[in-house]
Amino acid sequence: MIPSDPSERLSLLRRIQEGDLVIVYERHDHMKAVKVIGGSVLQNRFGVFKHSDWIGKPFGSKVFSHKKGFVYLLAPTPELWTLVLSHRTQILYIADISFIVMYLEIVPGCVVLESGTGSGSLTTSLARAVAPIGHVYTFDFHEQRAASASCVPDRSIAGITICSLDYLEWEDFEKTGVNKLITVGVRDIQGEGFPDEHLGQADAVFLDLPQPWLAIPSAGKMLKPDGIMCSFSPCIEQVQRSCETLALKFTDIRTFEILLRTYEVKEVRAELGKGDEGFSFRSPPHKKRQHSTEKGDAVEASGAATVMAKPCSEGRGHTGYLTFARLKCV
Amino acid sequence: MGESNQTSRLTWEGCSVLLDINDGERLVFARLSPAATLKIGKKNFSLQPIVGCPFGSSFRVDNGKDGPYLSRVVPSEEEGGNNVQEEENVTGEELRDNRALVDNNTAQSLTGEDIDEMRRQGATGEQIVEALIANSTTFENKTSFSQEKYRLRKQKKYAPKVLVRRPFVRSICDAYFRKYPARIGCLRSDSLALLLSMANVTAHSDVLVVDMVGGIVTGAVAERLGGTGYVCNMHLGVTPHSLEIVRIFNFNNDTCKRIVRCCLNDLCPGQNGSHVQNENMASDSGNQLDVTEEDVSLEENKTSVDTSNKTGKRDPTTCKAIKAGEVASEELIDSWKEKGFSSLIIAAPEQDVWGILQKLLPHLSYSASFAIYHQYLQVLPSRTHPHMQMSAFGGYILSGTKICTSESGAQ
Description:
The complex is a heterodimer. In chain A, strands 11-8-7-12-13-17-14 form a 7-stranded mixed sheet, sandwiched between helices. A 4-stranded antiparallel sheet of chain A has the order 2-1-6-5, with helices on one face. A two-stranded antiparallel sheet of chain A has the order 3-4. By secondary structure, chain A is an alpha/beta fold. Chain A folds into 3 domains: 71 residues, Vcp-like ATPase, Chain A, domain 2, CATH 3.10.330; 184 residues, Vaccinia Virus protein VP39 (Rossmann fold); 49 residues, no CATH class. Helices cover 27% and strands 28% of the residues of chain A. The longest helix of chain A is centred in the C-terminal third of the chain and has 14 residues. The radius of gyration of chain A is 22 Å and the shape is globular. In chain A, strand 12, helix 8 and strand 13 form a beta-alpha-beta unit. Chain A is built from 11 helices and 17 strands. Chain B is α/β, with parallel strands linked by helices. Chain B folds into 2 domains: 87 residues, no CATH class; 233 residues, 3-Layer(aba) Sandwich (Rossmann fold). Chain B has 15 helices and 16 strands. In chain B, the strands form 4 sheets. In chain B, strands 11-10-9-8-12-13-16 form a 7-stranded mixed sheet, sandwiched between helices. A 5-stranded antiparallel sheet of chain B has the order 2-1-7-5-6, with helices on one face. Chain B is elongated, with a radius of gyration of 25 Å. Chains A and B meet through strand 6, helix 2, helix 3, helix 4 and strand 13 of A and helix 1, helix 2, helix 7, helix 8 and strand 13 of B.
């Protein structure tokens, strides 16, 4: 997902290989992460897709099922990952994630601490930003999860038990090299604080905890001078209490709420020319159209398209408040 | 990758800094060259005391034997003495725009001459503020709330504070958005952050950028690449787009050589139809407009961005040997023709982005992400929807993933 050297970046020459992770795109709100394995098949409402048909095709290809239904095979990105990962917890979404990465001033080479890991939605984006030589240490206190099969045993770096979000995801991280950028630890950050080995080492700290004020003093100790932390809280009472704690050691305290308005874009009257030009802002393909676009290219090309956009009727409203603060310079 | 100037936590001779004067009252980009000065009030202050200090440190005006100079506020002193004030400053930040108080100095018995005399005798800014308070007949009757406001206002005038910030994309974008939004196409930092995410910018990416917003997008991408990959700044006409803002970042040689320019015709030869011609004209006139803006730029910008041009003495550690934005080599362009770019970002708020997108999409790798910033919602085919109020509005971002419909290439 994150290239660790120039040869791994997306390219027109790149082809899907055995073992690749692909995002199977049915429509903008329906995607699935699949690992390509020679003898396997993917079955969905569009039919049966053979993985072997996918190998050797470029990422981004449209592939067909036995009954001429189709899906697109996309290369995974942190944005797509956010959309396909299984939500064990309330996850952070793209607008918040983007802003967090920029406002924490995360650049390649940075060391970032995160707690909790949750479903790992933010973690992947943090890893993308610190790549190729930085590192994300992410901590979650989930005894249940740690005890379950999701825990990868015998992986220990510097005394931290490494626990994946779930086994498959960890495997995927390993395959794509993301695991070189992320270390997952099981730890109660509110109770114990971050491990001492990170003292004064962190460029940025991110907290998504129910009582962030308990972890803020530890975050302050981990940060380099002038380092930045961010706390995500859904409730304003949490923000108030966090700010009181922050004011002791931090400066430049600012709270944001990010609202992203998404639009529904629809073609009405006639189809846009040239058939499947393939922009994701076309109205999402549904079953009926899948076939019509296959056969009706010539007809559609002559029709004038009218494109309409309106704000999605059910938008994501409040997610949480993002409180940023800088460690005072000593 | 080499050492990155960007990750340095201390300033150095020749480094670029953002100076925040009186909690955002003024924002000045400056280069810490030996001759660089900052004008506060009527006086010019040398920026030399800032060299070697950690980013995030504060300075105030002190009186030395050679006159007033910028002196670093030692944090322990600040914490020991002014704890209460510190806390109240946090509150003060929210009140900055409240100008209900009338600045009517009939209650003040100290005259301008008195203050000048105090200065001559070496009084610090804080002492002058205290004297003003002591000589104000109304101060005692004010609520503690408005007392603090009074103190803050006097402090800004008589004991200005200068905070040294790292010029990262966050602070640069925020500063431009506040002071010169038009120069960055009103691109707000949260929108810029979204562009970078949606376009999947990461190390080792080759990012194609159409940046008609002063270089802020080019700089932001280069910051994310950290000296790997390439950011290719594409200009549509003969004149390259301004990369003025890129110089504000403290990019080292590794990063600077990864910022290259390329003309649309170099990438897609033989495509200069009438459509492109029109774009050429538009982009040229756009550049001219920039130049005019330069000429009328405010006082504080002159001391700042322009210091790099004025002093001619460039920072030896940043972009002396390699200048950001050299013309892309033929080999590089050929490799892009073969492999395609891994991301595309278009921030050309005054352009027909649909026309640009059509030309550039074939050069994007399959499954690569693109993101387009525009102030007007523009959807296929070139339909513009009613304008929204620009206040409290971050613009529109259109993003997507390029797909491949046949082996022969994208349509």
